[in-house]
Design goal:
By secondary structure, the protein is an all-alpha fold. The chain is built from 7 helices and no strands. Helix 2 (about 40-70) packs across helix 5 and helix 3 crosses helix 5 (about 115-145). The protein is extended.
Amino acid sequence: LAGKAVIFKCLVKKLQEKELPALDEDFVSDISEESDTVEEYREEVRNKLTEKKTAEAKRAKENAVLEAVISNAQMEIPDAMVETRQRQMAQEYAQRMQHQGISMEQYMQYTGMTTQMLLDQMKPQALRQIKTRLVMEAVVEAEKIEATEEAFEEEVKQMAESYRKDVDEIKDL
C-alpha cells in the first residue's frame, strides 16, 4: 500500500486526560513530611533547590581547582600503576553489569568490544584518577591535613545513606 491513500476505521474505547492535583494543604500533606502549608512547602522546595545548586557550584569550583593543579603537576606514572587501575575499573564495571543481570561476556557480545578495547577506553580515566589521588595525597601531606573522628563518622554516615547500607558495613569496606 506504499504511496496509496488509505482509510482507517478505529474504535476509541477511552479518552484520558492527565489532571494535575490542586496545590493545597491536602496535596502538601501527601507529598511532604516537613511542610503543612503550601507556603511552607514552597519554602522547603526553594531551600532544597538552593542547597542543591550551592553544592553543585562548590563541586564545580573544587573540580576546576583540582583540574588546574593536576594539569600543572609534574609526575611520572608507571605503566604498571595505570594498568592496575584499568583492571580495577574493569572489574568494578563488570560488577555493575552483574548487578543489572548482564555478564561481561554478554556485554562484550552486545557491544562488539573486546577486553582490550574496554581497557583502552578506560585508560584516560584511570590516569586522571591516579593523578588526582597523587595530587590529593601530596596536598594532605604538605598541609598536614588529618581527619577528625567526628568528620570520619559523618562521612561514613553520609556514605551509608547514599548507598543504602549499614554504617558498620561501610566501615568494613
